Amino acid sequence: MIVVVMGVSGSGKTTIGTRLAEALQCSFLEGDLLHPAANVEKMSHGIPLTDADRAPWLAAIRAHILAAIEHRQCLVVACSALKQQYRDFLSQGTNIIWVYLKGTQEEIEPRLEHRQKHYMKAGMLPSQFADLEEPRDALVVDISLPPEVILQQLLSQLRARS
């Protein structure tokens, strides 16, 4: 099983992804760790990434997904995957379960403002929402709920799918 937890920065991808991976007894991949240094540098200076900037990052995530499939391993990935073309690239020839952590800019902005030591700042949130193309084929959860509730909802939805 490959699950990608997606959404804008600050939506809770790492929090929910790690909990979901633990509950499913899967490996967890933090997609942000695969950004090339140039991407991190741009974002840390408040410069939004372009599609070209994201291409090597998405290719690295896809390589991890394909390796997990090849080794028959369960994997949960945290990756913004804001555009449909990114999701199409990541899922090409695979069966990915998408989890969309849906929230408003008003809900997410305070989360980013309180983050310490993260390159993604609250000022970049509008560019994330501008790029966001909501998925049509994802399990959708409301980020205003507590993480434990979100996790239980996801587990129920995943059980219903299998």
> What sort of overall outline do the alpha carbons produce when their principal axes are compared?
globular
Work out the oligomeric state of the chains in this entry.
single chain
What is the total tally of β strands? 5
**Cα Rg:** 15 Å
What fraction of residues sit in β-strands?
Answer: 15-25%
Give a brief description.
This protein is of the alpha/beta class and 162 residues long.
Description:
- The protein has 162 residues and is α/β, with parallel strands linked by helices.
- It has helices at 13-24, 37-44, 51-70, 84-91, 105-113, 125-131, 147-161; strands at 2-6, 27-30, 75-78, 96-102, 138-142.
- The protein is 49% helix and 15% strand.
- The chain has a 5-stranded parallel beta sheet with strand order 2-3-1-4-5, with helices on both faces.
- α3 (51-70) runs parallel beside α4 (84-91).
- The termini are close together.
- The model has no long low-confidence stretch (mean pLDDT 89).
Which helices and strands appear, and what pairs or packs with what?
Elements: E1 2-6, H1 13-24, E2 27-30, H2 37-44, H3 51-70, E3 75-78, H4 84-91, E4 96-102, H5 105-113, H6 125-131, E5 138-142, H7 147-161
Parallel strand pairs: 1-3, 1-4, 2-3, 4-5
Helix pairs in contact: 1-7, 3-4
List keywords for this structure.
globular, single chain, alpha/beta, 162 residues
